[in-house]
Amino acid sequence: MSVGLPKVVAELFTGRARATASGIYMTGAHVGEIVALAATAALYFTVGEVGGFAGPSLVGAFVSVTGSFTLGVASLSVVTFGAALAAWRMPVPAEQESPP
């Protein structure tokens, strides 16, 4: 939050308008927290739903083509291994020193 904004609100607004402007200023961060929480939950749910649909669909497609679960399970193993390898290869950010 800006330290200068309360001064601007105090200079531009008087009386009830100042109270309203201060209230809007103070609730902005909290509204942002709520929106971020909702967006994160929606993203998490969406990824889970896609994963819960794509995996069985992929295995089912391989079973219908080959008549065996082997290729479907092997393909899921390769995808999982690839994701783990990609996560392992991600660079770790260097720790920054705090200013004194």
Number of structurally distinct domains: 1
Helix coverage percent: over 70%
> CA-to-CA gap between the ends?
22 Å
Q: Give the overall shape.
A: elongated
Proportion of β residues? under 5%
The low-confidence parts are none
- Our count of helices gives 3
SS-based class: mainly alpha
The ordered string of helix (H) and strand (E) elements is: HHH
- How many β strands by DSSP? 0
How many strands, which pairing sense, and closed or not: the largest β-sheet?
Answer: none
Mean pLDDT: 87
Provide the gyration radius in Å: 26 Å
Structure report:
This protein is mainly α and 100 residues long. It has one domain. Helix content is 80%, strand content 0%. The chain has three helices and no strands. The protein is elongated and about 75 Å long. It starts with a helix and ends in an 11-residue tail after the last helix.
Which short descriptors sum up this protein?
100 residues; transmembrane helix; 80% helix; mainly alpha
Sequence-ordered SSE layout with sheet pairings:
Elements: H1 5-12, H2 15-66, H3 70-89
Summarize the structure.
Helix content is 80%, strand content 0%. The chain is mainly α and 100 residues long.
